[in-house]
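Hi all, a correction to my earlier message: I attached the wrong file for Epoxide hydrolase N-terminal domain-containing protein. Here's the right sequence:
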Amino acid sequence: MSFAGFGRLPAGASAAIKPWSVNIPQLTLDNLITLLKASPLPPPTYENSLPDQQRTLGVRHDWITATKEYWQTDFDWRAQEAYINSFPHFKAHIDDNELGPFDIHLVGIFSQRPDALPILCLHGWPGCFVEFLPILEMLRTKYTSATLPYHVIVPSLPGYAFSSPPPVDRNINSDGAARILNELMELLGFDSYVIQGGDLGGRIGRIVAANYRESCKAIHLNTGPMPPPELTDKSSPISASEQAGIDRHYLFKETGSAYAYAHATRPGTIGFVLSSSPVALLAWVGEKYLDWTDETPALDTILTCITLYWVTGCAATSLWSYRQFYGPGAKSHGTKEWHIHQPLGFSWFPREITPVPKAWVETTGNLVFYRQHEKGGHFAALEQPRMLWKDVEDFIGIVKLLKK
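and the right structure:
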């Protein structure tokens, strides 16, 4: 398949990185359809059938019923797979000193310009690399491989999609994932790079920036959940929209975060539940795409991401990070050991589940760019690709000016 030059790795890339493509066995897809058809649904209840299409007590019965039917009869995985494969994919083999061998899947577009800037884009849960395809599409349409100003690298995090699952005999945390991602960038031949991340990708990106300051030169985030920090009279004032975001943050903590505590405290149990029933996975993950977004993504996009979780088995292997960020001893973006000394950029979206104000973000690093938007939610790269990427480019412009 021709990628118009975007699939040509940099000259310094290691031979441990090999071209790859997605090809889910037909038997796996057939088994998914069989399970969907055989899966019973619970009866309508008050909680899943609230008036006015409310979802305050959980995912709705009518949505699950209609989406299950569409998934098993009309959803075309092969069409989605063909589009996914229209971008260059690779597998990178990494021998990590602490966690052992890992194969990290990545999708991306590479420039032939010698001055191209490497940008590592990191997804979260329940996201995947598909979140960043709209940005990759936008860039490959606007540029050629000879003119693209960036290398844009989108890995599947350890335990997600087509990357290796964590080892069963050793505990992985986000520090380990950060180390593996820095090793990935070294294998690609990059001794310096910029990070963009949200959700878990933002947390891991922050750790990369804190632990590998010589390599990660700047980082842009679109999420930053943290407890209220101690502010001073020099802190930025909190606007009315930011206060509304703080209120939304607290509401989410009270009414929407039970899933995270379940992931953190009983991931083994949740892994069995989500891996044994595609309808359970649809309810658990589909709810997030409905509730965490400003505008609901296309149903095919939601089902593409959920299908990836099912066919790769990562519903169970992607839960490891929550133990570090929820429950006893939880760490956050405000953790001092992860303070960012490099330039930090931040994009604020109103329908983010935990939107934090500029004054809070300022306490976590060297904030040089902060922009509020009037629309957009948790999956910023998927929901507002042009808006998010403009922020990234404007942030990079500021960083370059700071260096002069």
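Sorry for the mix-up. The chain is about 40% helix and 15% strand.
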